[in-house]
Design a protein that fits this description.
This protein is α/β, with parallel strands linked by helices and 198 residues long. It has seven helices and ten strands.
Amino acid sequence: MQINAIQLEPSNPFVWASGMKSPIYCDNRKILSYPKVRTLVRDAFIQKIKEDFSDVDYIAGVATGAIAHGALVAEELGLPFLYVRSEVKGHGMQNLIEGDAVPGKKVVVIEDLVSTGGSSVKAVEALRHHGLKVQGLIAIFTYGFQKAFEAFEAAACKWSVLTDYQTMIDIAIEEELLAPADMSVLEDWQDDPQNWSN
């Protein structure tokens, strides 16, 4: 919040690419412009990887928001890096996965943001289809939608985050970045974002 990567506007909603309206906008690309924050996030990813995964051959970032974060993590761990496109490249080799991906190797996926989980699970499935063993996915932030939990469960993919919507709300209130009156709006949106948007 200090670098405005997360912005809260309950009275003036943002419009997402999907057309859905939201009282919050999260742009984790901004983290890359702040070396101390960038390092903090990189180190948090590394700590989680070391805690949760004992055997990792590759780090993979999900395009486009997690490419840089994933590359920073891979560099620090001394591991090869891959990234997964949202769709097959329309020219050249027509790759979906970029990098030297060897089937049978174990990979941890880095993601910047999980909303419904759809694009994250799509990246996981692309890696599996290529023959890689996905150990799990770690994201910077999630809105905590039930749909995301269901998507990862259906894909049988372990996932975790560095921080989440409720933690962000608690800190925003504690640091007086958010009026308590706005809480009900943010809670209503998280409970049923589609109806709130309509």
